[in-house]
């Protein structure tokens, strides 16, 4: 009887470890896929090249980890997808929000249409970095 309990405990322990490792690995792979995408790199380049963003954040501008559990900051509607990325510099920190539009559904080509910066020290205001909808 005692051997059965030990066996069940081992199964539960290894099962919990396996599920945890799978969850951590899945989140890492999703983060990596988003960060290696051309749209992510393009949005970050727009932010780093913008003079007011550089002045407010202070160089160098560093990106953080995307909170994949944030369903408001990272979501989609129709053919638009948006992500919120924490960014920081020497002077301040904030959140970069970038919007991606599916230009051609057949070959899954995406285009960055809007990039915004929300600074933590300036509440209720956003710095518009790029807006292709107005251009």
CATH superfamily of the largest domain, please? Mitochondrial import inner membrane translocase subunit Tim21
Which fold name is given in CATH as the topology of the largest domain? Nuclear Transport Factor 2, Chain: A
Q: How far is the first residue's CA from the last residue's CA?
A: 74 Å
Architecture of the largest domain in CATH?
Roll
* Class from secondary-structure proportions: alpha+beta
Describe the biggest sheet? 6 strands, antiparallel
What does the radius of gyration come to?
A: 20 Å
The low-pLDDT segments are none
Kindly describe this structure.
The protein is α+β, with helices and mostly antiparallel strands and 135 residues long. It has two domains: 1-36; 39-131, Nuclear Transport Factor 2, Chain: A, CATH 3.10.450. Helix content is 39%, strand content 32%. It is built from three helices and six strands. Strands 1, 2, 3, 4, 5 and 6 form a six-stranded antiparallel beta sheet that branches. Strand 2 and strand 3 (80-88) form a beta hairpin. It starts with a helix and ends with a strand. The relative contact order is 0.14.
